[in-house]
Structures are given as structure tokens and as C-alpha cells.
Write a structure and sequence with these properties.
The structure is a single chain. This protein is of the alpha/beta class and about 350 residues long. The chain folds into two domains: about 15-240, P-loop containing nucleotide triphosphate hydrolases (Rossmann fold, 3-Layer(aba) Sandwich), CATH 3.40.50.300; about 245-315, Alpha-Beta Plaits. It is built from eleven helices and 14 strands. Strands 6-7-8-3-9-10 form a six-stranded mixed beta sheet. Helix 3 crosses helix 4 (about 125-135) and helix 8 packs parallel to helix 11 (about 320-330). The protein starts with 17 loop residues before the first strand and ends in a 22-residue tail after the last helix.
């Protein structure tokens, strides 16, 4: 599923709407290909989640977009500016927050922001006003006079985002902004990123916390072995990579399980993948059948005298999509059966 373009959720994005345009982007280091023919577009005001295992090509992509690396071939444009040829313009258009960014512990927050505002070339009088604005946007005004060294990790992340906003960039590239944050700070970060998108900013976000990422992203791009494996909404990705769906049946009592299992087996994709929870009297299984077949199964269960308390499809999430796509890439396949539900997946913290 290479070279897919990420468009708006309603499919109406036009070329003029696309702030980030990547075409045929390739980066080689000798015989090693870190990025292979990446083509991707992101529309204005959208949040793209860029995910992949360590060494997938995420960091290489980011470095090219912010002008820190030159591609072997292909192009990357931000608001029409070439990331290689228009380096000065790219610096004005992009705000970049790396996973680990430098801070000056002996500076107060307003001094820290003033230092970077000067580096961006913002005149002194405008800097004072702009510092107040970015602190308000990030809900960090109360930190104005505090020393950076006294701030919690979550507070420092917010100040880091405030720093990226100083020159009012069109695109924000945030590498693991929720990394190391506690649950409360992650919620606050999520709300902040959504508010930035609502302001018209275009965000490219990497994260290894997939459930968190799925809550904020309009689109997802999955990279593995330097190639774009899937791109689009989560629903679009899952429709493309697999037709497998998961069904969960809650019975009224454990004693009904032996009778129910033989009835379920003909509808399951693989009989040995039927999972049973005796304590909850629940059956779960993968299937490629549709709603009409599910109706037949439910009718068969009821006809057998089995009381069904709940019969539902388990919604596929971003973890399933990631595992399905990357496992297929590892096996040299285009598609793969989704893995069973499991705990949180670590995609890779900062190396890409």
C-alpha cells in the first residue's frame, strides 16, 4: 500500500489544501536505504500520526522536513517551499520539537523564550508580546518567572511547544510529545494539540503510545523498513490491510460454552483462534463473514437453547492496525491477519 496520499477525512482535500507534500522521497546511506520512495500529503489543520518501529524511517523523514538532512532523491515541500532549496523559508514555516530538546536550567521561562525569539529574528518589542501569547496558548502563563530547572517534565514539554510557536509556523513537527508524561499530563497534552489543529496548524506527531495517538489524529501513516505501508484514516487502513473482523459473544452461563463452541466454529476464520473466557462465559473469534452470517449464527445459538446476553463486533484499534501492517512488512506480504487484542504496544520512542 505504498505511496498513498493522506487527504482530509471527507476526501475533499485539494492540492491547494495540502500544506505538506512529499513525493518519491528516498534517503540512502551507502548501500543502506533508510527511506524508500515515500509519497505523502497532509492537509492544513490536520493531525497526522507518523508511526513505525525503530529504524523504520520516521526520524529520517522528520530530519528532511526540517532541513537537517538532504534526500538522495525526491522532493519535500511545506506550503510550497522546498525543504532543501528554501532552508530559510522552511525555518519560518516549521516548528520542530524533538524528543529530547535542550533547555537552559539557569534561565527563567520568559528568558528562555526570549532567547529563542531572538534566534528567530523577532524584534524585541514583538518578542515580549509573542511570549505572552504562546504562554497563553499553551496554558503556561503561570510559569513565566519560574526557572526551567524547577519545571516538571510535563511543564517542560508545554514550554517546548511554546518555543516552537514563537515564530507562528504553519506546520508543527512533534517527536514523542507525550513521552514520559503521567496520565493527567497526557490528557492536557492531547487537548493542547487538538486546540493547535483547531487554530489551523498542521501537526505531524510521532508517538509510541498508540491509544493516545489514535485519539488525536485525523490520519495515520505507518512506515516500516523505510517504506510507507499504509496511510489514511484508521478505518480506511483496516479496510485495506485485512477483511478480518472480531466477534465477541457473551453467554448467560458457563455451562452453555460446550454447546456454543461447535456452533461458532463454522463461522470462525480459524477454529484454533477461538478464545474462551470461562469466568465471563465469553467467546471471541476472528471471522471474514458478514452481518447476514452473524444473524444465522445468533439464530443457531438461540435455537440451541442458549441465552445470549451480548453479541457484538470488537472494534479494531490503532494497535491492531500497526501490528497487522508491520507484521505483513516483516513477512514480505501486503496484508496480514490482525493480532489478537493485547496490551499497549511500544512502537519506538525516538529513533526512527
Amino acid at each position: 500500500m505504498n505511496n498513498q496520499a493522506v487527504k482530509t477525512a471527507d476526501g475533499k482535500a485539494t492540492h491547494r489544501d495540502n500544506v505538506v507534500e512529499i513525493s518519491g522521497l528516498t534517503k540512502r546511506y551507502g548501500e543502506f536505504t533508510a527511506l524508500n520512495d515515500l509519497t505523502l500529503t497532509v492537509a492544513r489543520g490536520r493531525i497526522l500520526g507518523l508511526i513505525g518501529p525503530n529504524g523504520a524511517g520516521k526520524t529520517t523523514t522528520i530530519k528532511i522536513l526540517v532541513g537537517l538532512a538532504k534526500p538522495t532523491s525526491g522532493t519535500a515541500l511545506i506550503d510550497g517551499a522546498d525543504c532543501m532549496r528554501d532552508a530559510r523559508k522552511i525555518k519560518r514555516l516549521v516548528g520542530y520539537l524533538p524528543d529530547r530538546f535542550g533547555s537552559y536550567d539557569n534561565m527563567r521561562v520568559h528568558e528562555y523564550l526570549d532567547f529563542f525569539g531572538a534566534a528567530y529574528g523577532i524584534p524585541r518589542r514583538k518578542r515580549v508580546k509573542r511570549i505572552a501569547e504562546v504562554l497563553e496558548i499553551t496554558a503556561s502563563t503561570y510559569m513565566h518567572d519560574r526557572y526551567v530547572a524547577t519545571l516538571s517534565h510535563g511543564m517542560q514539554q508545554r514550554i517546548g511547544i511554546a518555543r516552537t510557536l514563537l515564530h507562528d509556523p504553519a506546520v508543527l513537527i512533534l517527536d514523542e510529545p507525550a513521552n514520559g508524561l503521567d496520565p493527567k499530563a497526557r490528557v492536557e497534552m492531547r487537548e493542547l494539540l487538538l486546540s493547535l489543529a483547531a487554530m489551523g496548524k498542521t501537526l505531524i506527531v510521532t508517538s509510541h503510545i498508540l491509544p493516545e495517538l489514535s485519539r488525536i489524529c485525523d490520519m495515520v501513516a505507518i512506515i516500516s523498513h523505510g517504506k510507507l505501508r499504509a496511510a489514511g484514516t484508521l478505518a480506511d487502513i483496516m479496510k485495506t490491510v485485512t477483511q478480518t473482523r472480531w466477534i465477541e459473544i457473551h453467554l448467560d452461563k458457563e455451562e452453555a460454552l460446550p454447546t456454543a463452541i461447535p456452533l461458532v466454529e463454522p463461522f470462525a476464520l480459524h477454529a484454533d483462534e477461538i478464545t474462551i473466557s470461562q469466568a465471563e462465559s465469553v467467546l471471541r473469534f476472528p471471522t471474514q463473514s458478514g452481518e447476514s452470517d452473524w444473524g444465522k449464527l445468533l439464530s443457531n445459538l438461540v435455537s440451541a437453547g442458549i441465552v445470549v446476553n451480548q453479541f457484538r463486533e470488537i472494534q479494531t484499534d490503532l494497535e491492531d492496525a500497526f501490528l497487522s501492517v508491520t507484521e505483513a512488512a516483516d513477512n514480505g506480504q501486503e496484508t496480514s491477519r490482525p493480532s489478537r487484542k493485547s496490551g499497549q504496544v511500544a512502537v519506538g520512542e525516538s529513533n526512527g
